[in-house]
Amino acid sequence: MNSLSRRRFFGAVAAAGAVVSSPAILINRAHAGAPSLVPRKLPFPPNDNFGSYEPTISADGNTIHFARFAHNGDTRVKGPTDIFVSHRIRQSGEWPGTAEDWSPAERLPDTVNSDSADQEPWITPDGNTLYFMSFRKAPGVGPTGIWVSHKQPNGEWGQAQPVPGGNINNSEYRTHCFMPFDLPGQPSAMCFVSIRPREPGAPNTTDLYTTRQVDGVWQPAQRYADRLLDSIALKCRFSLVTRDDFTLGVVSVHDFGKFHTLLFVHYDPKSKEWKGPIVEAPFNDWNIDGACPNFQANGEKMIWSAGYDHGPDLISGGKDGAGGLYDLFWLPTSELIAYYKARAGVG
Q1: Residue 128 CB neighbours (<10 A)
Q2: pLDDT digits (tens, 9 = 90+) for 55-114
Q3: How far apart are CA 192 and CA 207, in angstroms?
Q4: How many angstroms separate the CA atoms of 229 and 59, rounded?
Q5: Going by DSSP bridges, is the β-strand pair 288-295/273-280 parallel, antiparallel, or unpaired?
Q6: 3-class secondary-structure state, position 13
Q7: DSSP for 176-240, written as a single string
Q8: What are the C-alpha distances in Å from 57 to residues 85, 262, 294?
């Protein structure tokens, strides 16, 4: 069983990360003129006493996959973290409805989960392919890698395998957070965070990489060089959404003082660059770990997890500490964009 904690994992990220430049001003959360941005907590379930972390929401909004830590007491978890699912089984009312509308959390089968840490799920819009990060060992895969499971004709999940090709997984380096990266006017793509050298012989740095499928084959991953995004150290996830001709980016940053925090930026399709100012989420809190956002495929809402660390050292995994207990929250994308525009002064 792999007992690497999330803090130890991101300690490797911290050692590799560096601020390259400072092209944009960070705007703090408080601002009297901006609209309010108050997270909505999902019902109980899909939240429950065992916690829900790193959610991904289906295209129709009625299925949520998430990770669960073993140390929060769910005896079904076989590794430090496993992937679970909850379904909205009654859909007559307004989303997300009430607790009676959702099924209790169910652990995915051993074709997906293992006795290593399995987390960071992302489900494709058709619901048939599940990507996730795993610490399990396999030829050609580094300390962490991206794995994939496909739904079979009988509806069951097939045996998970490392994502093939594209230099996505690398036997030497950590790779995680496989997320959509669909920019206006550009081919559909995926992005991930990896700790690897930018060129042979260079030190490892924490960077964003992109790849896309052509005729079912993953193309070689390329480092996504962007002045603004390169300036943000300790990136651990990047999510984006385009709504009403405006592209919002959300950077999940792990800084160890505030745990995870969320930063907002926006994309300029004319210059093909990400722009600031960088706006901090108003619900970031110094002692609450709020992390791992994911957007619904239709762009309607963002879902993420937040919770208190059970400390004093380990956030997740490991025999000497208890995992943080997280709940799932959501916000309409329209409110996120309105908040960012008001704070950043952009149209």
Answers
A1: 13
A2: 999 999 999 999 999 988 899 999 999 999 999 999 888 999 999 999 999 999 999 999
A3: 8
A4: 27
A5: unpaired
A6: helix
A7: EEEEE---TTS---EEEEEEEESSTTSPEEEEEEEE-EETTEEPPPEE---HHHHHSTTEEEEEE
A8: 10, 18, 7
Residue 288 CA, distance from chain mean position: 17
Q: Which two tokens stand for residue 261?
A: 């925090």
Q: Which two tokens stand for residue 26?
A: 């960070």
Sort strands 273-280 and 26-27 into parallel, antiparallel or unpaired.
parallel
For residues 144 and 135, is the Cβ–Cβ distance under 8 A?
Answer: yes
Phi and psi torsions of 221, nearest 5°: -70, 140
Q: Quick one: which of 50, 39, 7 has its CA closest to 312?
A: 7
What is the per-residue pLDDT for 313?
A: 38
Q: How many CB atoms lie under 10 A from the CB of residue 70? A: 23
- Which DSSP state fits 101? G
Distance of CA 195 to CAs 37, 115, 161, 342, Å? 33, 24, 21, 34
Alpha-carbon distance values, 42 to 92, 285, 307 (Å): 17, 19, 13
The answer for residues whose C-beta is within 8 angstroms of residue 175's C-beta and 6 or more apart is 133, 142, 144, 145, 146, 168, 169, 192, 193, 194
